[in-house]
Amino acid sequence: MQPDSTTLLERSGISPPLIGFYDAPEIAPFAPIITPQPGIRSCLFAFYQRWLDGFTLHLTSENYGCGGAGHWLFGRETRNRNDFITFLVDEEGLKASRTLMNEWIERAQLYQPVHSHILIGPLKADQYPYLKTVTFFVNPDQLSLLLIGAQYHSAPDDPPPVIAPFGSGCSQLAPLFRDLSISQAIVGATDIAMRHYLPPDLLAFTVTRPMFERLCQLDRSSFLFKPFWQRLKTARSRNDHGTSNLPSTR
């Protein structure tokens, strides 16, 4: 059963809808559906506004939008390795050398679909069994809150509760998790190639299903209801009303 995120969202002030990454056998439960236009390169984050409007993006191994999504989500190779490295290193300068980029590509883990359909869009409670990750779109204060939330139940010897791996925006939605069955989060939307599709003050915080369940368990004994968070919200409210909380220089 999908956990209730109401308290978390109300206390954090996160307003964009939570976006699920689903690997499902059927698409009908995710209506309304939108798909990339065949033959035209489309970054999946170009559909951000459609997500806000309630649409779910449907991707398949035949219609995946852009080469990056085809590679990361379906293992499709749309260009040879040498051309890929030339683009990433020589044209875009994303690694210090071709050797480093090649090593990174060699070791990178691709997503292995279980079903024929990848669906990315607002959460559907009745499709929880097919949910792989949940993405929060957040401002810096909300990101700080979720980072603390991810650490809340974490013991020193647990796997890192939060990672911020190098990779495309779409790879940060699922493939870059080594194990989707553990409680972990990725700080995402750090790919500058896709950031122009988002408002400038938003980053992504993508969590595995176990981490989502943990975050939804935060209650009145947690920092959500304690003075640190309340003081920060109060300070922001003052700034919004034109009253600075910075010390006077007079």
In what order do the strands lie side by side in the largest sheet?
2-3-4-1-5-8-7-6
Number of strands: 8
SSE order in H/E notation? HEEHEHHHEEHEEEHH
> Radius of gyration over alpha carbons?
19 Å
**Number of helical stretches of at least 4 residues:** 8
User: Can you summarize the main beta sheet?
Assistant: 8 strands, mixed
Quick check: average pLDDT? 94
Give unreliable regions as ranges: 243-250
Global structural class: alpha+beta
Query: Which of globular, elongated, flat, extended, rod-shaped describes the shape?
Result: globular
Strand content: 15-25%
The percent range for helix content is 25-40%
Count of discrete structural domains: 1
Measured between the Cα atoms of the first and last residue, the distance is: 57 Å
Describe the protein.
By secondary structure, this protein is an alpha+beta fold. The chain has one domain (6-75, 110-239). Helices cover 30% and strands 15% of the residues. An 8-stranded mixed sheet has the order 2-3-4-1-5-8-7-6. Helix 2 links the parallel strand 2 (33-34) and strand 3. The radius of gyration is 19 Å and the shape is globular.
